[in-house]
Amino acid sequence: MFYVQFIEIVNMNQSYIINQLAEDREKYFHAVAPPIIQTSNFAYPTVDEFTFAIQNEKDEHIYTRGNNPTVNMLCQKMAALEGAQDCLMVGSGAAAISNSVISQVNAGDHIISVKNPYTWASHLMTKILPRFNVHTTFVDGTIFENFVNACKPETKLIYLESPNSWTFELQDLAKIANFAKKRGITTIIDNSYCTALCQKPIDFGIDLVIYSATKYYNGHSDVVAGAICGSKEKITQIFHNEFMTFGNVLAPQNAWLMLRSLRTLPIRLKQSSESTVKILDFLKKSPKIERIWYPFNDDNPQKALALEQMKMPMGMFTLALKNRDASAIKKFCETLQNFLIAVSWGGHESLIMPKCAFVSENDPQVNMVRFYIGLEEADILLEDLELSLAFL
Ligand SMILES: *Cc1c(COP(=O)(O)O)cnc(C)c1O
Predict the structure, then answer these.
(1) Is the CB of 214 within 6 Å of ligand 1?
(2) Which end of the chain is more exposed for a tag (fewer CB within 10 A), N or C?
(3) Is any ligand 1 atom within 6 A of the Cβ of residue 94?
(4) Residue 162 and residue 174: Cα distance in Å, rounded?
(5) Which cofactor does it need (predicted)?
(6) Which atom of ligand 1 is nearest the CA belonging to 213?
């Protein structure tokens, strides 16, 4: 069923976006692969042309902190994939978070955020923004009314992450966006888990969609990058303010690597998703596992919402092992031959992130292990899991 859905979204002219859009080959010797315009600045033959370019910095080329042709090609493709009017590429997902959030608030304003957002989003809202008198209320985002109840006259921003990347709680995007619009509140979603291929928040009315492009979009564990997608108006405003001031620029070389990564995004996601479904079918039957967090699992009370908002299964889930002994859990993790112990996810390689690396041995979450399924053959991963689970 998921497979059929997947084919449908690939047919939505994503092929054109990924392979043709913004590729002006006549400008570069009909080369199939685009050039890396590795330059910091751009020269003009006349003062008048220079003046015109400076007055239109976002669309012309003045200086690579603003606009660079290789980076711009990527921005156009990312915006089109998102169904957004415009996109800014930045140097990391954290930069996408900080630039976009700060762009929407002034001193005295209030933010409502889902509880436990990505670590550095949380740091921004709990440690940095309070220094400028911007305060945040964190709510359980699975319940719509929590947003309504947390709303104050000075609320300017609702910050979402659906699903989040440990326990995969969702928010009802259409309902929240509709409520926010009526109150003049901006909505931002960190859509890194889904990518535009799985979930299009703009269709639900969300204003700004941000990414850690380090994860699925780049997908080869060799570039750190971020993206901010939204209306022309909002993106232009961010460009002239936070983007140019904070200067978290994505280098042309890294934009080029990302352009290359985009060519294979649909097949990478397809492989990871199909393997994940197979692996989950196996894990669901294992007597060694207490619980699995995954949006499409039958025991997820938000499964219906996941099916409504997300177009396909993605490659990350969390297990709670029955065995709570930290040394046994470590042994399990270290025995897995095809899963690296590491942060991040979305690359070619399968990963695990054991909670016991971060919490004490008595912590109630000590038995949680997050899995990311990469591009290895599913059977190899299954065999590996079967052998290692035997240690528990
Ligand atoms: C990794 C991650 C980020 C941060 O992105 P970087 O590219 O590492 O700065 C933000 N949100 C989510 C959900 C992530 O997984």
Answers:
(1) yes
(2) N
(3) yes
(4) 12
(5) pyridoxal 5'-phosphate
(6) 7
Encode the chain (392 residues) as per-residue pLDDT tens digits.
Answer: 444 444 444 444 999 999 999 999 999 999 999 999 999 999 999 999 999 999 999 999 999 999 999 999 999 999 999 999 999 999 999 999 999 999 999 999 999 999 999 999 999 999 999 999 999 999 999 999 999 999 999 999 999 999 998 999 999 999 999 999 999 999 999 999 999 999 999 999 999 999 999 999 999 999 999 999 999 999 999 999 999 999 999 999 999 999 999 999 999 999 999 999 999 999 999 999 999 999 999 999 999 999 999 999 999 999 999 999 999 999 999 999 999 999 999 999 999 999 999 999 999 999 999 999 999 999 999 999 999 999 89
> Ligand 1, residues 199, 208, 215, 218: which to mutate, most atoms within 8 A of Cβ?
215
Whole-number Å distance, alpha carbon 55 to ligand 1 midpoint, is 34
Q: Is residue 267 packed enough to be buried (19+ CB in 10 Å), middle (13-18) or exposed (0-12)?
A: exposed
Query: Which domains does the chain carry?
Result: 2-262 (3.40.640.10), 265-389 (3.90.1150.10)
Contacts for 132-135: CB closer than 8 Å, 24+ residues apart? 132/107, 133/107, 133/108, 134/105, 134/106, 134/107, 134/108, 134/109, 134/110, 135/110, 135/111
Q: Identify the residue whose tokens are 């859905």.
A: 5
| Pair 211, 227: CB distance under 8 Å | yes
The CA-atom distances, in angstroms, between 55 and each of 52, 58, 173 are 5, 9, 37
Instruction: State the residue for tokens 């309902």.
Output: 175
